[in-house]
Amino acid sequence: MKYSFIIPVYNRPDEVDELLASLCEQTLKDFEVIVVEDGSSVPCHDVVENYAGRLDVHYFLKPNSGPGQTRNYGVERAYGEYVLILDSDVVLPADYLSAVETELTQHPCEAFGGPDRAHESFSPMQKAINYAMTSFFTTGGIRGGKKKMDKFYPRSFNMGVRTDIYQKLEGFSKMRFGEDIDFSTRIFENGYKALLFPTAWVWHKRRTDLKKFFKQVHNSGIARINLTKRHPGTLKLVHLLPMVFTLGVGFLLFLILVGLLLMAWGVLVCHSTDCPIAASFSNCSPLGGHLVCFGLLPLMLYSLIICVDSTLQNKSLGVGLRSIAAAFVQLTGYGSGFIRAWWQRCVLGRGEFEAFKKNFYK
């Protein structure tokens, strides 16, 4: 057998149903499916049983230990030459596995990954979040696709590894966030090749609201510092961009606030003509207006770029407008997590587990 799909799942039986349904439609059939339930309170056993006659599918239940260790558990029970790691919230096009087969034939390698897309059935907010996670104008250029700002590192939502290499490297670490980048980095550090397979893409559902999305990308920002501590020298200039964006947005908002206060002060003193000293402060009003304009213009220009680009890509103004909020959440969430982790790990010197126990290790 050549391929083993590894699917960790935690309280998402409906998503597993959709993923398994898409696996039934694969044009290439040389694969098995291993579903590992990570201590869920809402199990998907019955869902998996429904596919027993249509797929070579195996179901395992284990205590909760996080996605990385759950994938390792599945790989230990796999028989394929390659293991294909998927998140439970993806759906595969019918030619996904045949695309992997073609890419491997043309570009042999020990590890690989593919990009993700938004399905037509996704909600406008899911499409907006997908845009924020994949756009060149956010940090999408380093995640996967043809427009890359850094070396491609396979991600766990769509990742393939030769099984013997996976076992030799002992799979995913106990990191609860960023564990896929940690694994990809170790693949490179040990002299193996990891490639982007652009034709082996998946539909990825993403988060359904901005609050959950912020938490996800905030944790990704924290993970970047943890990864830098584990792998010195891997922090690149591109990884600093969300932090710079976050600080820039904070500075611009500060200017707007100061400008509004000066404008309000100017209006007040204009009515205090009996006091010549107070009246002299009325000149603050024009200065306040300039500060407000200076703060608003860059934010409005960036918002316009995001809205136009997303609207054209998704053919929907509604998605384009939502993408503005999603892009700001994506960049400031990642940037604030990065800054927080830098303070905790690099300034205060706290350990990875100690500093973020509430975020990752509940």
Automatic annotation (TrEMBL):
<dbReference type="InterPro" id="IPR050834">
    <property type="entry name" value="Glycosyltransf_2"/>
</dbReference>
<keyword id="KW-0472">Membrane</keyword>
<dbReference type="Pfam" id="PF00535">
    <property type="entry name" value="Glycos_transf_2"/>
</dbReference>
<dbReference type="InterPro" id="IPR001173">
    <property type="entry name" value="Glyco_trans_2-like"/>
</dbReference>
<keyword id="KW-0812">Transmembrane</keyword>
<feature type="transmembrane region" description="Helical">
    <location>
        <begin position="287"/>
        <end position="308"/>
    </location>
</feature>
<dbReference type="InterPro" id="IPR029044">
    <property type="entry name" value="Nucleotide-diphossugar_trans"/>
</dbReference>
<feature type="domain" description="Glycosyltransferase 2-like">
    <location>
        <begin position="4"/>
        <end position="134"/>
    </location>
</feature>
<feature type="transmembrane region" description="Helical">
    <location>
        <begin position="240"/>
        <end position="267"/>
    </location>
</feature>
<keyword id="KW-1133">Transmembrane helix</keyword>
<protein>
    <recommendedName>
        <fullName>Glycosyltransferase 2-like domain-containing protein</fullName>
    </recommendedName>
</protein>
